[in-house]
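Translate structure to sequence.
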């Protein structure tokens, strides 16, 4: 009886949550994207540099997440026109990554599905069969998503448009920033971690100093349970809850080659999450900047009006263009229990006492 009681006390000490450290168990992202390439696209590609296929945990429209994985527009059989994506690894010297590819089927003469180019106003992540905006063959946007075990070193989104050769597709890059998460455990025992995220504006093109500008709005909230990829859609209660909590009303994002930090928006790094937080969701909404640019540097010359309050955090209506897309991004946290050193010592002492008593009983 004494043997049992010593073992019970020792093990109960070992699982006491004296110190907790946060680790990430998954990054998730779902988003609407509008085809503004000027051509009908026949697919979409998510290039995740620095990740292996084993790092992909979920895909929107893929099997195993409660989604129908068929092709087309029937909500009973499909969530988006291209169906489940393919997942393939690539390597180019020291660079490697994984591509998640949604693609139409070409029968030698025509494609089964395509996304027309155009403009579209959507209330958010609704360009899918359950989105409630009349998603169909004429809708110039689609909804895609992927879950990963950790951050990609670089994420590139591309519409796949047909070249001059029928059936052959090429990439048309989409300037939709991908959030990058950073989870920092607290140095204080049992304290929650700091969960930050940042997005970066598109890189400059054509050897100009500044890249293209875009407007962004950010919403966020925490939940006391993990979130799944299938929950990062517009009609889900969690996303509706997130939309009630504005983190950034408006911000202008634009990269400056001479000062790259200017084009990065950081959120959440000032304070730890709540003690019961098991997941954090951030929603990013992107809008085109249609104001003036400097003809030489390409710097955005947005309207500044102190009387009306217009500026880089409160745009004038004439500076806001079409809705480009939304990112619903989430991180699931795992609070791992780690005993204090004193607990380990007591555990070892308890097991040592158990061994001593067992040996003594054998000698007796």
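Result:
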């Amino acid at each position: 009886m004494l043997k049992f009681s010593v073992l019970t006390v020792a093990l109960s000490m070992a699982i006491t949550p004296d110190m907790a450290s946060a680790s990430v168990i998954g990054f998730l992202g779902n988003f609407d994207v509008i085809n503004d390439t000027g051509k009908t696209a026949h697919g979409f590609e998510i290039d995740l540099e620095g990740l292996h296929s084993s790092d992909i945990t979920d895909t929107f429209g893929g099997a195993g997440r409660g989604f129908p994985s068929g092709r087309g527009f029937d909500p009973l059989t499909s969530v988006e026109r291209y169906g489940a994506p393919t997942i393939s690894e690539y390597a180019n010297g020291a660079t490697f990554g994984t591509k998640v590819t949604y693609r139409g089927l070409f029968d030698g003469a025509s494609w089964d599905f395509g996304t027309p180019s155009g403009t579209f106003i959507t209330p958010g992540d609704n360009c899918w069969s359950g989105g409630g905006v009349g998603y169909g063959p004429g809708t110039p946007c689609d909804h895609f998503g992927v879950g990963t075990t950790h951050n990609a070193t670089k994420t590139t989104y591309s519409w796949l448009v047909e070249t001059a050769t029928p059936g052959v597709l090429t990439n048309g890059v989409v300037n939709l920033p991908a959030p990058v998460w950073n989870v920092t455990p607290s140095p204080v025992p049992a304290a929650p971690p700091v969960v930050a995220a940042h997005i970066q504006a598109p890189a400059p093109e054509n050897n100009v100093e500044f890249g293209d500008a875009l407007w962004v709005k950010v919403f966020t909230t925490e939940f006391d349970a993990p979130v799944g990829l299938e929950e990062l859609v517009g009609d889900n209660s969690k996303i509706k809850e997130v939309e009630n909590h504005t983190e950034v009303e408006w911000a202008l994002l634009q990269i400056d080659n001479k000062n790259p930090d200017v084009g990065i928006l950081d959120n959440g790094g000032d304070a730890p999450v709540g003690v019961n937080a098991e997941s954090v969701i951030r929603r990013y909404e992107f809008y085109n900047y249609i104001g003036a640019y400097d003809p030489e540097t390409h710097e955005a010359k947005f309207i500044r009006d102190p009387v009306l309050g217009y500026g880089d955090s409160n745009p004038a209506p004439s500076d806001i263009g079409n809705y480009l897309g939304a990112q619903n991004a989430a991180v699931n946290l795992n609070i791992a229990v780690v005993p204090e050193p004193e607990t380990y010592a007591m555990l070892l002492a308890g097991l040592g006492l158990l061994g001593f008593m067992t040996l003594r009983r054998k000698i007796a």
